[in-house]
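Lay summary. Proteins are chains of building blocks that fold into shapes, and those shapes determine what they do. In this project we predict the shape from the chain. Here is one chain we studied, written as its sequence of building blocks.
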Amino acid sequence: MTHVRGHIDIAASVETVFDVVADQTNEPTYNPGMVSSEMVTPAPLGEGSRFRAVARSAGREVPMTIELVEYGRPHHLGVLTSVDGTIIDGTLDFAPHPGGTRMTWDWDVRSTGRLRYAGPVIGYLGRRQEHRIWLGLKRRLESVPVRTGE
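And here is the predicted shape, written in a compact code that computers can read:
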């Protein structure tokens, strides 16, 4: 098992950051590696909501399922993701921080089959990937629309 954790500060309210992250259909708007994501359970969004998503990895499209196993709006999400023989189980926490929100992620990554012994590589790549994904979220939420015609 590999452990991946980190945090990022985002200049947006805790509620805004939580709502964008919890609705996994938003992920393609801030994660360039995510091709698509759709909710496959009935609304409303909450504990037990499941999503079918497709990510691009190493030049191929990889399907995954994502489930919200804990939903404590606006401070806590528990997420279970299954992708290509790998289970990613963990949490996202959202706390007020000067100027906005500190979002913390904490994942346990368990691989089976051919990836079973690749823990150190998966950990290194996972930390880099998570940072890139959440930096994309930060950029999206902190961007200011350009006004024209004024």
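What the prediction tells us: The chain has a mean pLDDT of 87.
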